UniProtKB/TrEMBL annotation:
InterPro entries registered for this protein in UniProt: Phos_transporter (IPR001204)
Membrane topology, from the record: Multi-pass membrane protein
Similarity comment text for this entry: Belongs to the inorganic phosphate transporter (PiT) (TC 2.A.20) family.
Protein name in UniProt: Phosphate transporter
Length: 494
């Protein structure tokens, strides 16, 4: 008997020790995960520097190009960690994609967009932010671009750590502006361009939010609140998918593929209409087949919007890779050109090896550090389901095309996050409206206390204020940081 008791006590002790060991393993894995991510990122940055030394060749400026490649790789990692969340967040938040699936799709399509359609003349200098000739010499120009690259990367890194999705385009713009002012004074900056960019802080999220809210209202009125939801969905889901397909076709023709083929806005819109009609007709039998046997309730609608949401997120990633890779490697390409040829006043084209650094950097950044911002955009601002998330991604594409037509300089980040806010605020307004109608119909119903009404807000105000504040200070913060770094480089080099 005593031996059995001893054995039982021994086993209990062993179980406790194993439990502690298991908890220790979990805790160690939790602590080590960020360290592994940082380690892999550091290895990628070092490899980018070695690749720059290999492809650029041995010249007196090789060290400068290697340092610039390291900064460019660091910026690409931060773009992947911050910017890509805007495309994948809604699909993950709506449970249409798992986090792993979203990261895999985004990595593939971001890289494809960057490598296949990202070779446009993309230097931020060519966009008229500063006058390159005001720099005076290639050396000063290179210092300015390195300052812009490092400052924008540091700022996006800080924003990701805080949990604020910011515009990487605006970060680079602020960095170039700050370095330009430090190098050549305020007269070097095109203040008209900067004024238009400042206006986009308001235009981008408002347009994105309005379009997303409009689509959500349309879906609610035409499908969700109908007596026979499934019958209404059979009619309108093919139309909405056709709109989505046509919008993305026009978007990719106008923005994502402009380096392969140059199309006017009217030609891109004609392509969009043709593709949209084809998808509308093709989706009619598909939707009817999917709708068979579905119950007449809102939950059933998720089935019909799931696949279009995943496809649209993939297409947004392709277009994002084609366009925003320039934020990581545009200044790097300008440095490579100025260091190799001494030419810093003409348009800058991106060498293939530079583009590869940008494409792989975005993918690594997304894989290693992206989940935090994906969760923020997808679920922490407001609750998304497939219908609301579909409105967000469709709004992002439509708003970019509308802004291009109007000639407005907008940010894809501001549009996508603004669309999430638009959906959330529309839900708040709609909920309040229904409650007012209920109070009129049932005057004896107890009034909800003000604090309870505040608790029921569908958009988290803390995230809203944090993101808006980060948007407002992005350009000036990056500019100040860039000016400080420029003077620091001057002191070191001098």
């Amino acid at each position: 008997m005593e031996s059995r008791d001893f054995e039982a006590r021994h086993l209990e002790t062993l179980d406790r020790d194993l439990g502690r060991f298991s908890n220790l393993e979990v805790a160690t894995a939790y602590v080590a995960r960020p360290m592994v991510g940082t380690g892999v990122a550091l290895i990628f940055v070092i490899v980018a520097g070695l690749a720059a030394a290999l492809f650029f060749g041995q010249t007196s400026n090789t060290l400068v190009v290697v340092v610039a490649a390291v900064f460019g790789a660091y910026m690409a990692l931060n773009i992947g960690a911050n910017d890509v969340a805007n495309n994948m967040g809604p699909a993950v938040g709506a449970n249409a994609l798992t986090m792993g699936g979203a990261i895999a799709i985004a990595a593939i399509f971001e890289s494809a967009g960057a490598l296949l359609a990202g070779g446009d003349v993309v230097s931020t200098i060519a966009k008229g932010i500063i006058a390159p000739e005001s720099m005076g010499s290639p050396q000063v120009f290179v210092w300015a671009m390195m300052s812009a690259l490092l400052s924008s990367a540091l700022w996006v890194n800080l924003a990701t750590w805080v949990g604020a999705p910011v515009s990487t385009t605006h970060s680079v713009v602020g960095g170039v502006m700050g370095a330009g002012i430090a190098a050549a004074g305020f007269g070097a900056v095109s203040w008209g361009t900067m004024g238009a960019i400042a206006a986009s802080w308001v235009v981008s999220p408002v347009l994105g939010g309005a379009v997303a809210a409009g689509f959500l209202w349309f879906i609610k009125s035409r499908i969700v609140y109908r007596d026979d939801k499934i019958a209404a969905a059979r009619v309108w889901v093919p139309v909405l998918v056709g709109i989505m397909a046509g919008t993305f076709a026009a978007y990719l023709a106008l923005k994502g593929l402009k380096s392969l083929i140059d199309l006017s806005l009217s030609a891109a819109l004609l392509i969009g209409v043709a593709v949209g009609v084809a998808f509308w007709l093709g989706m009619i039998p598909v939707t009817r087949r999917q709708a068979r046997g579905l119950e007449n309730r809102n939950r059933s609608l998720k089935v019909l919007f799931g696949i279009p949401l995943i496809v649209s997120a993939a297409l947004l990633s392709f277009a994002h890779g084609a366009n925003d890779v320039a934020n990581a490697v545009g200044p790097l390409a300008a440095i490579v050109q100025a260091s190799g040829t001494g030419d810093f006043t003409h348009a800058v084209t991106i060498p293939v090896w530079v583009m590869i650094i940008g494409a792989f950097g975005i993918s690594f950044g997304l894989f290693l550090f992206g989940p935090k911002l994906i969760r923020m955009v997808g679920s922490q601002i407001t609750k998304l389901n497939p219908v609301r998330a579909y409105c967000v991604v469709l709004s992002a594409a439509i708003t970019v095309i509308l802004a291009s037509w109007l000639g407005l300089p907008v940010s894809s980040t501001h549009i996508a996050v603004g669309a999430v806010f638009g959906v959330g605020f529309f839900r708040e307004w709609h909920s309040e409206r229904r409650m007012r109608k209920m109070r009129v119909a049932m005057p004896d119903r107890a009034e909800i206390a003000p604090e309870e009404r505040r608790r029921r807000k569908l958009v988290r105000r803390s995230h809203f204020l944090t993101i808006i504040a980060a948007w407002i200070i992005t350009v000036p913060a990056a500019a100040i940081l860039s000016a400080v770094i420029f003077h620091g480089i001057g002191i070191i080099a001098g």
